[in-house]
Amino acid sequence: MAKEILCVVEIDENKIKKSSIEVLSLANKIKELEGNGTISAVVLAEEPQEFAKELFNYGAKKVYGGKSPSFKYYRTQPFVKTIANLINSSGDIDYVLVPGTGNGRDFAPYLGAKLKAGVIADVIDVEKAEGGLNFIRPCFAGNLLYWGKFNDSGVKILSVRPKAFPMPEKADNTGEYVELSVDIKEEEIPVRVLEVMKETGKINLQDADFIVSAGRGIGGPDNLKIIQELADTLGGAVGASRAVVDSGWISYDHQVGQTGKTVKPKIYIACGISGAIQHLAGMKDSKVIVAINKDP
Predict the structure, then answer these.
(1) Measured distance CA(52)–CA(23) in Å, rounded
(2) Residues 208, 236 contacting (CB under 8 angstroms)
(3) What is the pLDDT along the chain (296 residues), one digit of tens a residue?
(4) Which of 98, 109, 150, 263 has the most CB atoms in a 10 Å sphere around its CB?
(5) Regarding beta strands 125-129 and 118-123, do their DSSP bridges make them parallel or antiparallel, or are they unpaired?
């Protein structure tokens, strides 16, 4: 039975990412199925204590804070080292849940190798099974579902697909804040973040309620302005198929699909997209899908 379910929290522009809050919903589900367990969260940041109250309100009973200037930006080595030290020193952490973002996909397998622990990636659901829990993830571009189970009683690491779980209910809760001992020397970290470049004034693709996506069928890069105008009118974001990104018409951060981003907007408008299974894997859970395509 679960002792402690640890949720790894990702901070972006001094805010908790929604995908990290969604992870707490899976933690709640594991707790219900196991019949017990404490839900905790770990934040590595320059001022981690600033995020504790929000995490308590979303259901965490304990928040671990790792404070260091080295945590301003995500880098694999210091983040894995600090959280692995927490897990090893605690002895009570049974599950580690990681948001399946770009950073999370880097972090989870590295942590698994560090701890010699099993990892199940891209989890979208969990169910009770004989001798434990089955964790469900899509494979073959979402055409099949895979049921995975951990073989032993060691630490179990899961990366959680963004938008697979709802945001938990928010309430005015309190909890325990634990400050971690951080042993990070900047000169020992082999990676430096020199600059972070982001588009300003644009809605994040994974947070957008309305997405207008372009495929090769729009004819050429000049026609992207029509896609952008519609997205702006709706107050939404611009997506793209892999073919459009590979052709250099738009940057990779707009790509929706198996090798791009997974989205779940209220309305997804696909313009000139063929509907390959790799693309469907990234947007098939949209509430309403509108296809503008001459091929019925």
Answers:
(1) 16
(2) yes
(3) 568 999 999 999 899 999 999 999 999 999 999 988 999 999 999 999 999 999 999 999 999 999 999 999 999 999 999 999 999 999 899 999 999 998 999 999 999 999 999 999 999 999 998 888 999 998 876 678 889 999 878 899 999 998 889 899 999 999 999 999 998 989 889 999 998 877 666 778 888 999 999 999 999 999 999 999 999 999 999 999 999 999 999 998 899 988 788 898 999 999 999 988 889 988 988 999 999 988 77
(4) 98
(5) unpaired
